[in-house]
Write a structure and sequence with these properties.
This protein is an alpha+beta fold. The chain has two domains: 6-100, Beta Barrel (Ribosomal Protein L25, Chain P), CATH 2.40.240.10; 107-191, Ribosomal protein L25, C-terminal domain (RNA Polymerase Alpha Subunit, Chain A, domain 2). 22% of the residues lie in helices and 38% in strands. It has helices spanning 17-25, 47-57, 119-122, 189-200, 208-220; strands spanning 6-11, 28-35, 40-46, 63-69, 72-85, 92-99, 106-115, 126-129, 133-138, 147-150, 159-161, 172-173, 180-185. The chain is elongated and about 60 Å long.
Length: 221
């Protein structure tokens, strides 16, 4: 088995919004470690290692969580279950870790990845991706980085349904209906003609009063 990326965290003994704010000012991110047995431990982690790990792992790749608690260190296979970013700055402000048993299957969402240049796109069509992710069941070490769909042979109006997608060995997709995942849409000629007609229209002339009224509305917005 390949060596997993390691991420060091410490137990967070002081709780509350005020303490969490101080942690963030010191370059730390508060979080919680969960596992399937119902364990939850407040933790803290340095922001930079967390950002680097998330950019590499996403939320669907296993790593070793090195937990320092009560003066002891424990290494736990885990997932970066959820990272919440601050809306303005975009930096992490909270993280949830989920411990996994490498011998047991779990349910997890994996992203689709489109590869190749579609025949239909070369003819002027466009790619419509209807689903970003698919839930699958597999063991943690079998979680794929993505589910790859080759669209090279797709012509205009062709589509790929979920039953057409090839999944890696040991990975079972979860779905009820054979829905379309991706399709190549045709250019809508009617819309193009309408846009062309609008471009040929003469500009409307407004009076000075109407113009000033519009300006005031824009200012108020």
């Amino acid at each position: 088995m390949a060596e997993l990326l390691k991420l060091n965290v410490e137990e967070r003994t002081k709780l509350g919004k005020g303490h969490n704010r101080r942690l963030r000012l010191d370059g730390m991110v508060p979080g919680i470690y969960y596992d399937a047995k119902g364990t939850n431990i407040p933790v803290k982690i340095k922001m930079l290692p967390l950002q680097k790990a998330y950019s590499k792992l996403g939320s669907a790749q296993v790593f070793d969580l090195v937990l320092e608690k009560d003066g002891k260190t424990e290494t736990i296979p885990a997932l970066l279950w959820r990272v919440r970013n601050e809306p303005v700055t975009g930096v992490p402000e909270h993280v949830d870790f989920f411990g996994v048993d490498l011998t047991k299957e779990i349910k997890i969402a994996v992203h689709f990845e489109l590869v190749g240049e579609s025949v239909g796109v070369k003819l002027g069509g466009s790619v419509d991706l209807y689903r970003e992710t698919i839930e699958v069941i597999c063991k943690p070490m079998d979680i794929p980085e993505s589910i790859v769909i080759d669209i090279s042979e797709l012509d205009i109006l062709d589509s790929v349904h979920i039953e057409d997608v090839t999944f890696p060995e040991g990975v079972t997709p979860i779905f009820d209906d054979n829905y379309a995942v991706v399709a190549i849409a045709a250019i809508r000629e009617e819309e193009e003609e309408e846009e062309g007609e609008e471009g040929l229209r003469e500009p409307e002339v407004t009076t000075g009063a109407d113009s000033s009224a519009d300006d005031s509305d824009k200012t108020s917005e």
